[in-house]
Amino acid sequence: MAKKSSKQPKPTERAIDLRAFTTDFFTNLGATVKAADRRKAGALQVELPQELTTYFGAPSLTLCFQQAASSALPANGQQLIAHGSPIFDKMLTYLDNRSAVAHQRLPIRHNAGEELMRAVRPVNTGIVGLRMQEQTQHLYAFHWHITYRADDKREELYSVLLNEAGERIVANDEQMGDSNGVDLAVLLADAEPLPPELNSEGQLAPVVIGARLPPMTQLSRLAETARKYAIYHADLRCVSHETEILPRLYKSLNRLTTYYQQQIEEVYDAHDPTGEKRRVLETDLERKIAEEVENHRLRVHVQLFSYAVLQVPVAVAELTLSDGKREVTVQVLRNRYDGSLQRPRCYVCQTETTQVVLDRNGHIICDGCLQQCSRCQDILCTTCGVAACPVCGQQNCDTCGRMCWACGERACAEHSSGCPVCGDEVCHACQEACSHCDTRQCRSHLRMDHVKEQRGETAYICASCALRCPGCEQYSAEVGLCSASGQRFCQNCLIACTTCQRTVGPGFYQIIDEAPYCHNCLVECPGCHGWTTAVQSCAYCQNSCCHACGERCILCQRSFCADHSHSYAGCDHVVCQTHAAHCIHCRQDLCPLCNEVCAICERYHCAEHAATCAQCGQQYCQTCVTDLQLCTTCTTLANTDVMIELPNEVCLADTRVAKLASYYTWTSARNIRYAVYRGQHAQRTDALIVTTRDTAAPQVLSVTGPGITRGRHHAIDEHAPGEVAKLKDSSEWLHEFQEWLRRMRRSGRDRR
User: What is the pLDDT of residues 338-390, one digit of tens each?
Assistant: First the structure.
């Protein structure tokens, strides 16, 4: 449950407040008030004047503020003053009928001479005129009666103080918490009645209050403004009041719910078979809950019960300030009641200022809102102010500067000029000079020079200097004359002929072998009608052709036309008809550079009609390989008896051949590409060596012979490096071979 925000006043404190109110009430109305006893909150004896005697029905009243302890009624002859008592309600009714409006004035407590003169200090002006006068300003105090009704009733008096402009003057009280505000109670206590008015004969004129009040429309407007502040204050108070009401509502609802829940639980099923009694109790509980919620609902009533119009004496000093060119009148006001000064307000920030500055347009400004033009040195406020030139950055006013139509900035007169194309006044930051004729104009009218842009440079050219190149369709000022056509092209499109060095444009030159040539230095090919530097004759038919439509044989290096040259799809080689090759079996076209002739018959063959010799392992055409899978060279080698000396051959430089040379008798057979050597021995397997017939550096292709390793023969072949690695070095092999010979001789003697 939430705690109360403030302590409730004790009965004695409430009695003292009512006693002070009652004393002030009767004293202000002309009655005599005396204490009936010495107690602090004791009874009062009041002697009433004639008007109050008629209203209250008695010439004197004995008023008490506390009931007797032994009785619920006051003592004999005493009337109780308490909230809701008959005598207190009668006092409030009397106030409602008489105190609706009060018109008073505040006393004069301060002088108005020297303080007004020291209130302002002109900076750039002098005082050329002074006029002093007395005026009266009005303050309006609206008193509101705010009632808060829920399960209890609370009342509050709230006052709002406004000036003539409808601005609120904060009151110095506990609610606002502002120590610098106005103490409204002191202000109302210091107020004095208005002095009597005299007629033309010097006699007192009857007071007509309505004639001294402001117009009713102004009072209505001020009252509506004050009502908004009162409603806002009531909304804030409702928060704390509702915080106190909710615990009480919860307590009441909890009590009701507990009671009815017990009643519902005590109804037995046998006594209420249809459940009607339970439904009646539940309906009654809902009605009671709705009543309690409605009784605890907070209702607020705000009512204006009185207002006061206070005249404030004000001294006004009208100062005429002049800087030699213009004059401005300012007012300085002093409240002669509290001594406060009202100085002139800055035209820009609306704050009161002591140091007054007069700008060129007659505005009163403070030091913080002062600006100065760097050209004419005039002082201006920030509203009228100066602007930075987008070119030089110096401040300039609207007189010294010119507004740029392109960027909207204000530039100096030196940095602004008219565009010769559109005629607009544009700053130099938005303009650019033509790189060719140096004419300054708007950047939107200029074009980028295409030639310099391609070189990485930035250059603008105007429409007069820009020429649209007919070759690349771009604008440039760097153009040249084509010597062939007389047209003007940009420098990017013009080239120099490789032969004659003349400058020509697009359409009047050709690129041949990545070099440009003009048409005067070229000839037209009769075959393809294209431009070429030279024509050549076909070696076969003698017709003219160029390098584009003719070909050069890679073997004989002679030129041939397209009809008498032959190219192959698998390679880029071109040969003439004389050197064109064909398979001897199927007549398939073969490139003479990519295919070799048969080493025996010296004729070309394709891969499908090739055969491999089973003995020498070389490839030949099918015609040169017999049915026994031996080539013609190997067949010749088997039938020849002509011995040769292998140490005299070049192939002996190979270590594999050197190991076998001394153990065999050798015969050989040769073709145009290979040489085949056969080694024979009576007690050993034949050896075979195949080499190329390259006279410069012959190559051993294969070596086949016996190797004595664990009684087995091993082939030595350069294409089987694993087998070669199994052989031992030459000294060990020779030792094993000698042991084998001795065993063979011993076995022969044993057989004999």
Answer: 888 888 988 888 888 888 888 888 888 888 888 888 888 888 888 887 888 88
Rounded CA separation 144/230 (Å): 7
Looking at beta carbons, which pairs linking 488-494 to residues 24 or more positions away fall under 8 Å?
490/450, 490/451, 491/451, 492/450, 492/451, 492/454, 493/469
For residues 223 and 304, is the Cβ–Cβ distance under 8 A? yes
Which amino acid makes up residue 225? T
Q: Which helix (H) or strand (E) holds 512?
A: strand 509-512
d(CA 716, CA 703): 5
pLDDT of res. 737 = 61
Q: Residue 660's closest CA among 721, 719, 724, 707?
A: 707
Partners of 132 in the β-ladder: 317
Asked whether the beta carbons of 520 and 484 are under 8 A apart, the reply is yes
State the pLDDT at residue 116.
81
DSSP state of 1: -
Q: Within 508-618, where are the H helices?
A: none
Which pLDDT value is given to residue 243?
92
Per-residue confidence at 694, pLDDT binned at 50, 70, 90? Answer: confident
* Residues paired with 319 in a beta bridge: 130, 330
Give pLDDT tens digits for 524-553: 776 676 677 666 767 667 666 776 666 777
Contacts of 526 (CB under 8 A, 6+ apart): 535, 543, 544, 545
Region of residue 31 (phi > 0: left; psi between -120 and 50: alpha; otherwise: beta): beta
Tokens of residue 594, six digits: 């990519």
* Burial (Cβ within 10 Å: 0-12, 13-18, ≥19) of residue 8: exposed
- Model confidence at 149, pLDDT cuts 50, 70, 90, reads very high
- Give the C-alpha separation, 635 to 629, whole Å: 10
Residue spans per domain, the chain: 11-98, 100-109+138-192+215-268+276-310, 346-383, 645-744
Largest CA distance in the chain: 196
Strands 387-388 and 395-396, sheet pairing: antiparallel
Q: pLDDT tens-digit profile of 62-111? A: 998 876 544 445 566 788 888 888 888 888 888 776 667 888 888 988 88
Using DSSP's 3-state secondary structure scheme, residue 149 falls into strand
Confirm if 438 and 460 have CB atoms less than 8 A apart.
Answer: no
Residue reference for tokens 């105007």: 462
Cα distances (Å, whole numbers) of residue 368 to 161, 300, 475, 713? 33, 48, 54, 116
Cα separations in angstroms, 172 against 126, 177, 182, 183? 40, 7, 5, 5
Query: Tens of pLDDT along 703-735?
Result: 887 652 323 333 333 333 333 333 334 445 555
Q: Is 331 exposed, middle or buried (0-12, 13-18, 19+ CB in 10 A)?
A: middle
| pTM for the predicted model, two decimal places | 0.50
- Length of the chain in residues, anyone? 752
**CB count in 10 Å sphere of residue 91:** 20
H/E segment holding residue 226: helix 216-265
User: What pLDDT sits at residue 221?
Assistant: 93
Dist. CA 173–CA 185, nearest whole Å:
9
